[in-house]
Design a protein that fits this description.
Helices cover 45% and strands 18% of the residues. It is α/β, with parallel strands linked by helices. It has 3 domains: 6-126, 3-Layer(aba) Sandwich (Glutaredoxin), CATH 3.40.30.10; 137-216, Winged helix-like DNA-binding domain superfamily/Winged helix DNA-binding domain (Arc Repressor Mutant, subunit A, Orthogonal Bundle); 249-451, Rossmann fold, CATH 3.40.50. The longest helix has 26 residues, at 254-279. Bound molecules: S-adenosylmethionine and FE2/S2 (inorganic) cluster.
Amino acid sequence: MEPFRYHVFICDQEKPEGVPCCAARGSGKTLEALRREIAARGLMDSVQVTVCGSLGLCERGPNLVVYPEGIWYSNVAPQDVPEIVESHFQQGRPVARLANPDAAALFSEILTNRDRMLAAQRAKGASGALPDDLLQKMRAFQESRVILTALELDLFTAVGEGATAAQVAGQIGTNPRATEMLMNALTALGLLRKQDGAFRNAPVSARYFAEGSQDNARLAMMHTAHLWRRWSTLTECVRAGTSVTHQEAAQRGEDWTQAFIAAMHRNASERAPLVVAAVGTEGIARMLDVGGGSGAYSIAFAQANEKIQAEVFDLPAVVPIAQAHIRKAGLAERVRTREGDLRRGPFGNGYNLVFVSAICHMLSEEENRDLLQRCYRALAPAGRLVVQDFILEADKTAPKMAALFALNMLVGTVAGSSYSEDEYAAWLREAGLRDVRRVRLPGPSNLMIGSRK
Ligand SMILES: C[S@@+](CC[C@H](N)C(=O)[O-])C[C@H]1O[C@@H](n2cnc3c(N)ncnc32)[C@H](O)[C@@H]1O
Ligand code: FES
């Protein structure tokens, strides 16, 4: 069965430095050209492109195989792509100059390469060398640090339409030699392009990291740069059992708060339609958004149902940020704000929906029990309480993001963590909620929902 007229498998395998592979020979650019050309010629419904691992012709990459004929192309440069697409996919004539003509020779080359690769793996294993993927994980902080430093320095904005390292250094007040080293590394990571000594932003950096772009996420990503400092204390935190740098939210300073809420807002704006669809808006007249941050979820609920009046409850430093988002959405009449401390005091009563998103992880088990009880008391008789958070499997080792996030809470809070479905379900039932259930959504966090009957 072949649902597509042609199915292209293109190798984009990356191997350790110095080992021949398609990625090192430019398969990324060939793949980009292939996708672009197929789209430009309106062939997306008849030609399927699948990225695959090594095809066994690693010294002659980039390699691709086209089915149903089984034509193996090697050394395919981006400039060869239009010819393959036009001649092979549109006119049914494979490009002989790039195709491997002899199946027996191809078979023998692949087997020879496979045996060589297996022998190298055996030799490496016997030598006691660390596995490559383990080494890569251990050094991953270097790549992360390079990007975060560029963001801290606002380097991509300084590169603008193109600049030398010396020009960038002059603009951002850094050392020219060090700036060039940083920019060379950013080029190696694919975030800059370098030609004749001058640098340009790669499309992804121009879009997400440079001022003036409507998708500029630099402020939100500065939150990750701020987390770096906390994570560097992980060893001491594991010894101490708690954060060794913890500051109460109110004392963190404006830079921290602005970046934190910007990061939450990006994430929440993306997830809000999914959450609103999963929770539904029927029967909701009043909603309380506990620790509502930028107000993105309240805004989405209010936009989905004009009968909803929402209240974003957050710290005094955050409420003005929420108000700006609410005004921008034109919802100041129906989405109100309230300053307060979610760790204490009653929330009021009569809410049809109490929404607690990305809050429970910063609290201890006891604090969560207390919070959810106070949320329960704020509900109208048939109201629902919805918790959104990372939810761990019962043994707490998966999903990976939730397990890592538990450490994010260790380094940043007094007693926060990621929790399991059983823990959330128990707290919600203890608080008095019925019909407690988990709703899985795409992405790293899920919902726990309960009703006050
Ligand atoms: C991780 S953010 C989640 C924001 C929002 N609920 C969302 O899902 O995007 C945590 C929020 O809780 C707020 N917060 C933290 N401590 C608080 C406290 N003691 N009282 C009220 N809000 C608090 C923070 O200001 C922030 O807006
Ligand atoms: S890495 Fe592409 S064929 Fe081996």
